[in-house]
Amino acid sequence: MIELTLASSNAHKAEEFSELFDPKLISVKPAPSKIDVVEDGETYFENALLKAKAYYDKFKVPVIADDSGLNVAALPDELGLHSARFGGDGLTDRDRAELLLKKLDGVANREAYFSCVLCVYFNDKEIFYFEGRMAGVVGYTYRGSTGFGYDPVFIPTEKMEEGLTVAELHEWKQKNSHRSVAVGFAQKFLGQRI
């Protein structure tokens, strides 16, 4: 079995990763303490690496880090790497999602995709990346009670006919989200190391 420490002390996030990986192959546990990492990379890959290396340097154990965001075609420079800070400090997840709806009011091109990049850092010579994406569109209203972030305003391509947001598709999201896809790639690759 491969044991990975998540580059976060967030037990909920570690639990989410543990549920996505096959527990017989890979276990993910939260870091013993939080480290403040300046995420000043220009790509998801760079930010995931910054987090992974910082946690590896501190705890000297294999680490998994992720960086993710929502990329919106009509607002190419506003979300993406800055998704969690969109609109500035002090906003809730719902505030950010509703601000996105407001900015897209009257905009025809609502194409978007979620991206998740995982960095698995075994040591300074063994660093692996896995990317998952979930394509879709930004809807017109805030709907659904599960999920977080932009889930209540994002309609995945596979559910376009039904018009359901990710926040209305909890079970579907567990298998098809950008994070789930990235984990699938990671598990397939890492499983060969066991």
Automatic annotation (TrEMBL):
Gene3D superfamilies: 3.90.950.10
Cofactor annotation: Mg(2+)
Keywords, sorted A to Z: Hydrolase, Magnesium, Metal-binding, Nucleotide metabolism, Nucleotide-binding
Class in the EC hierarchy, top level: hydrolase
Cofactor: binding comment: Binds 1 Mg(2+) ion per subunit.
Catalytic reaction list: dITP + H2O = dIMP + diphosphate + H(+); XTP + H2O = XMP + diphosphate + H(+); ITP + H2O = IMP + diphosphate + H(+)
GO terms assigned for molecular function: hydrolase activity
Catalytic center residues: 67
Oligomer and partners: Homodimer.
Protein's job: Pyrophosphatase that catalyzes the hydrolysis of nucleoside triphosphates to their monophosphate derivatives, with a high preference for the non-canonical purine nucleotides XTP (xanthosine triphosphate), dITP (deoxyinosine triphosphate) and ITP. Seems to function as a house-cleaning enzyme that removes non-canonical purine nucleotides from the nucleotide pool, thus preventing their incorporation into DNA/RNA and avoiding chromosomal lesions.
HAMAP family registered for this protein in UniProt: Non_canon_purine_NTPase
Record's protein name: dITP/XTP pyrophosphatase
Taxonomic classification: Bacteria, Pseudomonadati, Bdellovibrionota, Bacteriovoracia, Bacteriovoracales
